[in-house]
Known about the structure:
By secondary structure, the chain is α/β, with parallel strands linked by helices. The protein has one domain: Alpha/Beta hydrolase fold, catalytic domain (Rossmann fold). Helix content is about 35%, strand content about 15%. The chain contains 13 helices and 8 strands. An 8-stranded mixed β-sheet has the order 1-2-4-3-5-6-7-8, sandwiched between helices. Helix 4 (about 135-145) packs across helix 5 (about 160-170) and helix 7 packs across helix 10. The chain starts with 13 loop residues before the first helix and ends with a helix.
Amino acid sequence: MKPAFAHRIAYLGCAAALAVASTGFAAVAHAAAGASASEPAYGPELEGFDYPAPVKQFNFTSQGVKLHMAYMDIAAQGKANGRTVVLMHGKNFCGATWKASMDALSGAGYRVVVPDQIGFCKSSKPQHYQYTFQQLAENTRALLESIGVKNATILGHSTGGMLATRYGLMFPQLTEQLVLVNPIGLEDWKALGVPSLGVDKWYQRELQTTAEKIRNYEKSTYYVNTWKPEYEPPVQMLAGMYRGKGKEIVAWNSALLYDMIYTQPVVYEFPLLKMPTLLLIGLKDTTAIGKDAAPEALRPKLGNYPELAQKTVKAIPKATLVTFPEMGHAPQMQDPKAFHEALLKGLAAAK
Length: 351
């Protein structure tokens, strides 16, 4: 059964209706694992969760639907270098999770634009939308045009790496540099034998989302079976939307997005990328969409990032690979200092 979309009408009033304190990363960092009674609930557009910088909205119409795309626009601190970096979040992330990167980049003189893609976080979650990486790239391009950004460095993490790749393929003349941080989609899971779940099965799976499930997955895949207090806020951020009254529309859009990821590989087009591309990859990553549904014999062969990193740097004509041997799927959060040193060095090399 499809979600009850009646909740959509009350979206703008959700924040006032929720008896929850406005809570950002710092406020939930101490949340106790498994203490569901004390864990926050947020609206379907993350109402009640504070971002690290002012959130603006880009209003536009797409596929006949009026939508709004949340974004942060951070000016360069100190001496501006005239360059803009656009940060594209992953499937289990939001613009807010780029806080450390926003600070590092703006402090180095970059203007930083951080959108929440449609279907995610503080942006619209439409009842009906044909999600494609092409569409999300077009949406992002329209946002950048509206705020006067022409050429930019496009940096994508995880699913955002697939989107950044599509953006670079569609707008090569506007992409100064591509930066891919542990991108997924370095292999075609469908072609390798991962079964298609379909939107309805993804929806049922998403309805079962809890903080514990998110935490366990991220611990094993993102953080090499370690856990720190600073990893908890993103868990509560995501889980909070599934505790709120709008969880059905959140789960439905998430299901549509998973289907997009599974059915729209970018790996075959890597040789077509024309711009300098920086690959920043934690080698302990094991991410592969649908791995748990794959035949048991296939699972160990999926998400082999040491092998995938080498294949990808050879496939992309102007690629440079920097690896983090002891890091997992989110090196920018696991060791921000080492990650940002490598990032800023790689950006400077592309001037």
